[in-house]
Design brief:
Blueprint lengths: L3 E7 L8 E7 L7 E11 L1 H8 L2 H4 L13 E9 L12 E5 L13 E5 L3 E3 L6 H4 L3 H14 L6 E5 L4 H12 L3 E6 L4 H7 L3 E4 L4 H8 L4 E6 L11 E9 L12 E4 L9 H12 L7 E6 L3 H10 L5 E5 L3
Parallel strand pairs: 8-9, 8-11, 9-10, 11-12, 12-13, 14-15
Antiparallel strand pairs: 1-2, 3-4, 3-6, 3-15, 4-5, 5-7
Helix pairs in contact: 4-5, 4-8
Protein name: NADPH:quinone reductase
Pfam families: ADH_N, ADH_zinc_N_2
GO molecular function, one term: oxidoreductase activity
Length: 320
């Protein structure tokens, strides 16, 4: 006799109010899978795209609702399926990156089943709320930097630098030996400086012009977390690159290559996930929690995220 669990579901697309608490059978891990008793799930912009239905424009082949949103879970392993390696065992504190579009749905649930390959131990010294903010955003940046293939000493600009993706972009670019130019409002200047940016410029639509004043030849690449798209292209050297986060692929100009990053391509890249965990443990990546809310207040978390200005990630607490 299996038990029941609660989850936050999207049964129809719409505003934050469509997020509903539902009861489901307790999921069971299959071969090569583990089950996690979720303590915390980070709230990401992709969760908002899913809830609103906007995601269907980006991923036309997704299955119809209902969905359980969430891609970032942190908790404790409470069951291990057959054939899982001995890297993970019952009782381990772990973080996982999951997809709402797979058979086991997303992270907004009391329990989630995930491929063992998508699960790593939580960074030592971090609580699970903070740990839940790592994988999806940092992996997005890692995939983007890998696509660009820059060499130490080259220069990259990061837009939206104070946000969660932008913050990891600064820190991962610095660990790769790159010079980082970042944007910030006056209120975020200190934060972006602490994250390690070499040059900080006022954010806004004419950021490209300000970058050229600092780097007349143009930067080698941009990680465009602010989604400036064509407005940031003039900052980039001929033949340079731009990493984009919502599927934008141009048109570009002057031979600039657009690299739209989809985090779903890296969900089972355990080596990348382990490296990100290690970098967080070593303090090279800063885990930033804006606020922790009870899971029952998921709609409020979505409202706060959509209102803008959140620094770090909102996190839902599923322990209650």
């Amino acid at each position: 006799m299996t038990g029941r669990m609660r989850a936050i579901a999207v049964e129809e697309f719409g505003g934050p109010e469509v997020l509903k608490i539902i009861e489901l059978p307790e999921p069971q891990p299959g071969p090569g899978e583990v089950r996690i008793r979720v303590h915390a799930a980070a709230v990401n912009p992709t969760d908002v795209l899913l809830r609103s239905g906007e995601i269907a424009r980006l991923i036309p082949q997704i299955p119809p609702p209902p969905y359980i949103p969430g891609m970032d879970a942190a908790g404790v392993i409470d069951a291990v399926g057959p054939g899982s390696d001995d890297r993970l065992k019952i009782g381990d504190e772990v973080i996982a990156i999951v997809t709402p579009y797979g058979p086991h749905k997303g992270a907004y649930a009391e329990q989630v089943v995930a491929p063992a390959a998508s699960v790593v131990r939580a960074p030592k010294g971090s609580d699970l709320a903070a740990a839940s903010t790592l994988l999806m955003n940092a992996l997005t940046v890692r995939l983007g930097l890998d696509a660009l293939g820059l060499q130490p000493g080259q220069t990259i600009a990061v837009t939206g630098a104070a946000g969660a993706v932008g913050g990891y972009a600064i820190e991962l670019a610095k660990t790769d030996g790159l010079r980082v130019i970042a944007d910030a409002s006056p209120a975020d200047h200190g934060l972006v400086e602490r994250l390690g940016a070499d040059v900080i410029l006022e954010r806004g639509d004419d950021l490209a012009r300000r970058i050229r004043e600092v780097v007349p030849q143009g930067v080698d690449a941009v990680i465009d977390a602010a989604m400036l798209h064509e407005r940031i292209l003039p900052a980039i050297v001929d033949g340079g690159g731009i990493v984009t986060v919502r599927g934008w692929k141009g048109p570009t100009e002057r031979g600039i290559v657009a690299h739209p990053v989809f985090v779903g391509t890296g969900l089972t890249d355990t080596a990348k996930l382990e490296h990100l965990r290690q970098q967080a443990e070593e303090g090279k990546l800063t885990l930033r929690v804006a606020r922790v809310l009870p899971a029952a207040e998921a709609a409020e978390a979505h409202r706060l995220l959509e209102a803008g200005g959140v620094r770090g990630r909102l996190v839902l607490d599923f322990r209650a």
